[in-house]
């Protein structure tokens, strides 16, 4: 994936059973409130990630920082998952969620490095033309991060579980946000 001043960030497919205990600690942590799994039991986390693993259009990955679990990435096809009927998908659209593990020793710039590495991974697939996200409208921290890597908010939408800010980032917008000429 990427190496930088933060260290090496890599991804591997999530193992729903082997990784459930680790993920349970992450998704139930107070800093993960927007993940909406605060009250989840271990079995709930296993069940959710087994469901994702079995889904043809939704995939979960464990992100590693210098080989140690540090973040979660999900990618999905918004034609079939999360955004069905809520916007007009275009060919090459890929939906994304990410969650950085809670830590007692935060590293300045780490979350931006993670979202940058996630976007690099998504755009490494030449079929990906645009990344789509739908964070909670009140999640100001993630809106700022999204903007920093090139996302442009389009409009608020009502999902069953939240009011969300639909935002898009094309390959060109991502490259421009990184200061890379195309």
Give me a quick take on this structure:
By secondary structure, the protein is α+β, with helices and mostly antiparallel strands. It has helices at 20-27, 42-54, 110-123, 140-148, 171-177, and strands at residues 2-4, 7-13, 58-65, 68-76, 93-100, 130-133, 152-158, 163-170.
Protein described:
There is one protein chain. A hairpin with a 2-residue loop joins strand 1 and strand 2 (7-13). The mean pLDDT is 91. Helix content is 28%, strand content 30%. The protein contains five helices and eight strands. The radius of gyration is 16 Å and the shape is globular. It has 182 residues and is of the alpha+beta class.
Low-pLDDT parts are: none
Spatial sequence of strands, sheet with the most strands:
1-2-3-4-5-6-8-7
How far do the termini sit from each other?
Answer: 20 Å
By secondary-structure content and strand pairing, the structural class works out as alpha+beta
* Average pLDDT reading: 91
Query: What is the number of strand segments?
Result: 8
Instruction: Note the run of SSEs as H and E.
Output: EEHHEEEHEHEEH
Major sheet summary line = 8 strands, mixed
Specify the number of helices: 5
CA-based shape: globular
% residues in beta strands: 25-35%
């Amino acid at each position: 994936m990427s190496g930088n001043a933060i260290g090496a960030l890599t991804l591997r497919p999530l193992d729903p059973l082997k990784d459930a205990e680790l993920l349970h600690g992450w998704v139930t942590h107070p800093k993960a409130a927007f993940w909406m799994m605060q009250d989840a039991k271990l079995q709930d986390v296993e069940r959710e990630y087994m469901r994702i693993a079995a889904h043809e259009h939704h995939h979960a990955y464990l992100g590693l920082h210098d080989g140690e679990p540090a973040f979660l990435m999900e990618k999905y096809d918004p034609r079939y998952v999360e955004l069905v009927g809520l916007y007009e998908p275009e060919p090459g659209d890929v939906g994304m969620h990410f969650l950085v593990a809670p830590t007692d020793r935060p590293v300045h710039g780490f979350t931006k490095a993670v979202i940058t590495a996630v976007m690099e991974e998504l755009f490494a697939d030449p079929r990906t033309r645009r990344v789509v996200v739908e964070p909670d409208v009140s999640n100001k921290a993630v809106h700022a991060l999204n903007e920093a890597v090139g996302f442009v908010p389009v409009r608020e939408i009502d999902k069953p579980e939240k009011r969300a800010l639909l935002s898009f980032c094309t390959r060109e917008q991502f490259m421009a946000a990184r200061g890379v000429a195309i």
